[in-house]
Amino acid sequence: MQVLVIGGMGFLGAAIVREIRARGDDVTVGDRSGSPEECRNMFGEGVSWTRMDILDEKSLRHAFRGMDEIYHLAGLLGTSELVEFGGKVEESINVNILGAIKVFEIANECEVSRVFYPSKPNPWINTYSITKSASEQFSLMYTENGNVPIRSLRYFNAYGPEQHLYPVRKIVPTFAIQAMNNLPIEIYGNGEQIVDMIYSTDLARITVDFLRNMEKNHVCDLGTGKGISVNEVAESVNNYFGNKAGLKHVEMRIGEVPDTKLISDNSLIRDVLGDLEFTAWDIGLEETLKWYESLSNQEVRSALNFYGM
Q: Mean pLDDT across the stretch 134-139?
């Protein structure tokens, strides 16, 4: 089987590349960053790389021809970052919505067998959530009116080794970088927000199983179905590093709702795949934090400088 992972050099894209490769399929990474050499260093032999811009129809057609499956993991990430760092609302609309539409249209044109698009639960009023929600609806529309099934999962809070420290502020890497340096962990709001933390390798495995087995035109949640407070996540990270600096609560970010409770409802996806297996939180977190410990002093310092810590 020939598989293309758009955005395969990124955190979750790379997890899906490794999962597909482990199943013996031929994988091509389509990304505007990286190079053939970087791709080999990241995944070993047997994974090819092609430069791709999801807003460039010519590059999409070139990459899509002959593909059986496409996983569309490219996008402009961020919550308040898309407003705070120079204002990227228009760019995020172009990349996250128009780019997704071009992927869906050209996948139909090239007669790709099936396409995956990751969505998200959408309780917040910010640029990223709005663009992901809109593209989820377009995926349903193109499936209804086109020839290619486009399947979508709403990803909850993914974490794992190799998640980037910046420029987007994600919960585990940000907490890790603070605790490693004996700084108080900064938490938005009162920290009683409930999140559903899913380990990246679990997410990748279930995503591939879902795309290859889902027949109906439904969007399903994908998380563990178990909630944990942001305070508890921070305390777990502090305990791992022996950080005594504690927690520091700060104002909520733009567009985020205090006391949000995000827990996956896995009933629909269990109807497709049966019982789901997930890495235990303590095991996944330990593996993740070990990876952050292995970073060079320069990488850690760059992250601290970026956030002004």
A: 96
